[in-house]
Design a protein that fits this description.
548 residues; six-stranded parallel sheet; 20 strands; 23 helices; alpha/beta
Length: 548
């Protein structure tokens, strides 16, 4: 007979868990005691449950394995809700373990007790309260299976303290070996036939293609056919964006140069589409043929109802299509590529504008120049996300971690911390607005304690800039969205990090080079000039692209 909490830890070890992130409470103490004896799993104590959840989700995003996080009952569990939604919408495998009062007898009335399982139901793939220690192996195995199965997401197990203290003869279950099914040959033939008969086909690379690591097969397909491609925000980096057939990233909702390129197509191959992203194109009756390639059938809505569906492992489906297709000598792509060239020509003078405070297009250019090919930038949520999605050239998969699913503030710093832990040899930068940074800024202490090498670039405009941009676009007066900030340099130093303040565009370049080449946690306070956001993103781009 062994203690249930020991068995739970053994089950996590059997799943290959490396870290548990979290803030334990009284109701986790049996679990914590068992974890203290594990030789395989390391506890990463964070300063807030939300930071722990974001770290676990990002672990899942990078590795494809389930990230695990721990909280107590009540307020600990409620602090996981945003991270659960982040993982669930973003397709990141994550398990939350929360404690609970004894369920077989009352210890303190209803003190701190919420129905956490019911609360987690709408924002997870699976949620379960352990009522018997004998069931721990099967419930843990089932939770991991569901977390990692397409589409990956969040799962939750509640471990009441009286169950954790039970004794059982159960043993951990082994992981099963499974492969994603391959697409049906007839659906491949139908898709290839539609492509061969098209005049101007285009590929749209979405979130699902980034998860299933399709880069190699997609590149071979593009090289063989010459068909141009664009990405959604979550599809950035699947193919090196320096490729001559790259058309851009659909960062704005509509009206950008890249949207005009899609509108010029008569056959759209949508790879790894996920309805959680803003659609890069809108279908209408009598419009282009749309081919849906994904591990899951298409969720139909008023603007998405594909003509042909190729369902199965994405990389394998692309390989089958590549083997079958005969490139059409009559395909015309020049007009699409002209839109891309127009975007590049429009961006170049903006990126060269070395004003101070820093102009967003110039900031994007400087960060790209400072980061190596395999460097990882982790964006929090704000208007700068649009600038980076449009202007930052991604070279490799999962080197631009932005959240275009839940699009939550506060995830940038924990996401960068996890990236630095998974890839200690790579350069990692968190890029945060001042508003988003302050939502989880306490994790700076965690980063320093863990001895991580990261740069935290704060874009300082003393306001909630994304909403301010929208407010201006809607013709409302500028009101209710500005605040004061701490001295970020002193704030960083108070945590034992190194603080820097940008004083000019040339100084930004120096600071980026210095912080990326110097070990430790660095914070850069960078004043930004957002005064032209509305004019450029909502007026100029739409006008210029329409004229083309």
């Amino acid at each position: 007979m062994k203690k249930a909490s020991d068995l739970f830890i053994e089950c996590l070890e059997e799943e290959g868990v490396e870290y548990i992130f979290g803030v334990p409470g009284e109701e986790n103490l049996d679990f914590l005691d068992s974890l203290s004896r594990s030789k395989k799993i390391k506890l990463i104590l964070t300063r807030h449950e939300q930071g722990a959840g974001f770290m676990a989700a990002t672990y899942g995003r990078h590795t494809g394995k389930t990230g695990v996080c721990l909280a107590t009952l009540g307020p600990g569990a409620t602090n996981f809700v945003t991270a659960a939604a982040y993982a669930q919408l973003g397709g990141m495998p994550m398990m939350m373990i929360t404690g609970q009062k004894p369920i077989k007898k009352s210890k303190q009335g209803r003190f701190q007790i919420l129905d956490v399982v019911a609360m987690m139901g709408p924002i997870t793939k699976y949620t379960h309260q352990m009522a018997s220690s004998d069931n721990i192996p099967s419930r843990v195995r089932e939770a991991f299976r569901l977390a990692e199965e397409e589409k990956p997401g969040a799962v939750h197990i509640e471990l009441p303290e009286d169950i954790a203290d039970e004794h059982t003869e159960s043993l951990p279950l082994k992981r099963s070996h499974s492969r994603r099914p391959t697409a049906d040959v007839k659906s491949i033939r139908e898709a290839v036939k539609a492509l061969e008969n098209a005049k101007s086909p285009v590929l749209v690379i979405g979130a699902g293609a980034n998860r299933t690591m399709t880069s190699r097969m997609l590149l071979q397909f593009i090289e063989k056919t010459g068909i141009p491609f664009l990405t959604t925000q979550l599809g950035k980096g699947v193919i090196d964006e320096r490729h001559p057939k790259f058309l851009g990233c659909a960062a704005l909702s509509a009206g950008d140069f890249v949207h005009r390129a899609v509108e010029a197509s008569d056959c759209i191959v949508n790879i790894g589409h996920d309805v959680i992203e803003k659609p890069p194109f809108f279908m209408k009756s009598g419009g282009p043929t749309v081919i849906h390639i994904s591990t899951k059938t298409a969720e139909v809505d008023p603007v998405y109802f594909p003509d042909i569906e190729v369902i199965g492992d994405i990389a394998n489906a692309i390989w089958q299509m590549k083997e079958d297709i005969v490139p059409n000598g009559g395909w015309a792509f020049d007009h699409m590529l002209a839109y891309r060239q127009a975007e590049v020509d429009h961006t170049a003078p903006l990126a060269a504008d070395a004003r101070f405070p820093i102009f967003p297009p110039h900031l994007v250019q400087q960060v790209r120049a400072a980061m190596p090919d395999d460097g990882i930038i982790c964006l929090d949520n704000g208007v700068y996300k649009i600038w980076f999605a449009r202007g930052y050239t991604a070279y490799r998969p999962n080197t631009v971690l932005l959240d275009n699913a839940l699009a939550t503030m506060g995830a940038g710093l924990p996401s960068a911390m996890m990236s630095a832990m998974v890839y200690p040899g790579r350069k990692v930068m968190a890029i945060c607005g001042d508003g988003g940074f302050m939502m989880n800024s306490q994790e700076m202490e965690t980063a320093v304690r863990l001895g991580l090498n990261i740069t935290v670039l704060i874009l300082n405009d003393s306001s909630y800039g994304m909403i301010r941009w929208k407010q201006a676009n809607m013709g409302f007066k500028d009101w209710g969205l500005t605040y004061g900030n701490p001295d970020f340099v002193k704030y960083a130093e108070a945590y034992g990090a190194k603080g820097h303040r940008v004083e000019s565009a040339a100084h930004l370049q120096e600071l980026l080079a210095h912080t990326l080449s110097t070990p430790g946690v660095h914070l850069i306070d960078c004043p930004v000039d957002y005064s032209e956001n509305d004019q450029i993103l909502n007026v100029d781009i739409k006008k210029l692209s329409k004229e083309l």
